[in-house]
Amino acid sequence: MNLNSLSLVNYRNFEDLQLEFSSKINCFIGKNGVGKTNILDSIYYLSFCKSWLNPIDSQNINYNQEFFLIKGNYAFEEKNEDISCGLKRGKKKSFKRNNKEYSKLSDHIGLVPLVSVSPYDTNLILGGSEDRRKFIDIVISQFDKDYLQNLLKYNRVLSQRNHLLKQFAQNHSYDRDSLEVWDDQLVSYGMIVYKKRVEFIEQLTPIFQSYYQFISSEKETVQLNYRSQISDAKFSELIKQSIEKDRIMQYTSVGIHRDDLIFQLSDYPLKKNASQGQQKTYLIALKLAQFDYIKNINNRKPILLFDDLFDKLDASRVEQIIKLVADDHFGQIFITDTNKERLDRILNKIGINYKLFKINDEIVVSEKEFD
Q: 16 and 38 share a domain?
C-alpha cells in the first residue's frame, strides 16, 4: 500500500498543493515554519480522520478561507482508491472513500495504517500514565473493535461508579448493593481490557528491544513493562478492599484506569536517567515495534511518518534508522528535515532511492527523484 499523490486545498498554510510521491522514501526539506509538518499532518488526517496537530477541525482551515479539502490517491494490492476529507466552516466534515461518504468515521480507521514519529511523542515519557495508556488503547483499538467496546463500557461504568460515590458523600448515605452493581461490571469489562493490554505488551517488547539494540549499535539495553494493580491480586478483591478509601476520596482508586507503562534504560527510569537522544531512540524503537504489530495484524505495511527525524539524534543513530526502514520489510516513508546536505549524505551513503521536495515560503519550489 502506497500514497501515490496528495492534494491540499486551504489546509493549514497551503492554499493549493499537488504532490506525487515515491513508493519508498519521500523527504521534505525547508526552514522551520514553512509547512513541512503540515504536509505530514494531512497524510495522518487521511488515516485517522483527524489532525494530530490540532483536534479542532475548523482551525485547520487556511486563514480567511471557508473550507479545506484533503485528497489522497492510494495504491492498494488490487487497485487504486481515492480517500478525501472536506470541511466547511460551521458544517460537519465529509469523509469519503472513492466519492462515497462514510456513515461512521470509525469504519475508515485501519484501512490506511500509519505510524507517526514526531517531537510530540515525548509526552509518552514526560507525561502522565494517561498518555501511555492512550498509546496502548489507540494501537489495539484500530484493529480490535471488541477491545474498544469493552474499554468504552469500562469508562462509562467507572464514571457512573464515581458519580455514585460523590452522591454518597453529598447525601451522607451509603448503599452497598447499588455500588456492587457497578463493581461487577467494572471487573467484567476491566479484566477483558487488562488481558489484551498484557498480551499486546508481551508481543511488542521483544521487537522493541531488538530495534533499540540495532539503532543504538547495542550500546544500551532497554526494558518495557506493563504495571497494573491487578497483576498480583484479583480485581474483584481489590474493589472490595478499596471501598472505604473510595468513599473518602469519592472516586475509584483501583482498576485498569490506573495502569501504566514503565520505560527503563539499563534498569533505570528512562525519564530521569536517559539523554534526549536516548529518549528519542527509545520512542522510535517503540513506534517501529508498533509498525510490526500493525503489519502482522493488518497484512499491510503502514505508512511511516518521521517528523524532524534528526533532532536530538547523532548522525550514527539516524543512519542506523534509515538503514533499517530502507529495507523491504518497511513500506513508504515520509521524512522532514531542515538540512538538505545532511539528509542527502546519509541517503546516498546507504544507496536508497528517494524523492526530495524543497519547500520555501509555503510552496514546493522544487522536487527531484534520486536513483
A: yes
